[in-house]
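name: query_chain
kind: protein
chains: 1
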Amino acid sequence: MNRKITVTTTEKLVGVMAQRTDYLTMFAKDRPPRLVFAGCPDAGLFSRILKESLDGVLEKNYIKDHKDKMAGFVSASTDGRVWWDTMWTRDAGVFLRELTHLGYYNHACILTERLISMVQKNAKGFYTFPEYFKYGQPGSGNELDGTGAILIGMVLLWERLPDGNPYKDTIYQFIDSPE
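structure:
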């Protein structure tokens, strides 16, 4: 079976994604479930720890402002501390999966958008993610853990987005690219 493959570069995808800029409205539409553990006295504490941890990352590490050219970037630390300007790809891939599993689809879409916009081709001409991205600095590398975690997260998100969603189309184009 002959199938026509359209080569889509990350630059073309980013151009399409740049048209979608109302992130705060998108984020407000996320309706994640509330995860609550019951049983022993520590179950409630554990529920609260998980919620506070996720809320903390979304508040302090995840760039939400659509005016910031790095919206969707998830920094490794906060407040100008060491690694504040760094997004580790393995962590970003795991966070992408967590956002998707917890129903934060719009947050996951913006993280996906950022990852696609930052990855560059490696020396062999394929898109592979580096060990980490520095704020505002695209790159490539040979980080198999990060690349694998990101692709798994993208596929999970793609499976859950409704047909016709522009992010679903973008994810498909990126993953299906022969590059």
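note: The longest strand covers residues 86-88.
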